[in-house]
Task: structure prediction
Amino acid sequence: MSRKKRYIKPLRAKERSLLEQGRKSNKGYQFQNRCHAIILSASGKTVSELQEIFHVGHQTIYNWFDRWEEGGIQALANKSGRGRKALLCTDNKDHVKVVDKAVAKINKQGGNLLAEIETELDLERSLSKKILRSFLKKLATSGNEVDES
Result:
């Protein structure tokens, strides 16, 4: 038995223009690919052809179709929570407190800020200058009183 061929139903002009705009102007290549796949499917491309164009499996194409049919163009965007989680988080009060205390201590006594923070916090990975700099910048712009010294 063969699988039923699945396509996206013909697009209205407004839907097509939204998808074209998303395909051309959005920063994320994944979102662009999803928009392009919907356009191509509505134009008659088969799932097999889309697989070869986008180098993904047939289930991925079906998932894109489902997302489009259930939620429109907004559903094609990446969901939040993807990617590597932050080592230090400004929402975590313990992180803010430890960093604030370490900055104050280092300003008075001198020493290594990274080492001081790492000894206080039990982190999964080692802390880098770049991560700490980014965290301190976020703290400074969020209204918390921590100097980057």
Q: What stands out?
A: Residues 93-109 form the longest helix (17 residues). Residues 93-142 form one domain.
